[in-house]
Amino acid sequence: MTGIIHHPPQARAGQPEVVPGWLVGAMIGLALASLALVSFAVLTGRSHVGVPAQAAPVAERSLILDGHGARAVTVRDAADGRVIADLAHGGFVAVVQNGLAREREVHGLDPRLPVRLVAYANGRLALVDPETGWSVELGNFGNQNRAAFERLMTTD
Structural domain boundaries of the chain? Predict the structure, then answer.
């Protein structure tokens, strides 16, 4: 039986392996520019951009998202365990459930604990995990994806 002998690449004689100086300078410049921008924002008290506007909740529903692999999800009412939707091809609901399950796995929590689906006075719709603080603004993913969760809010 013959084996394959692997020889690691070696630098050519007299030519050390180096990162080009211009690339090192560009990386340092990028780091310094990022530091300068963040420092400016902090020192001037600039408000955060992309943070959802605060508003009062106008409707809320506690749900249990029970995932079945990467694509399927069963949605239950947290109050009585009744099935609201059984989605064999859950689409966006399954994608959100997968993200929630991952976050809960990181925190060592049961993925089937209830989450809050919250509609706000300013039109926002969010799924909020009271256990980890994780949340997702559902309106940021397009009208069809938002509508998938709006149906869960009104389905009895």
Answer: 19-51, 57-154
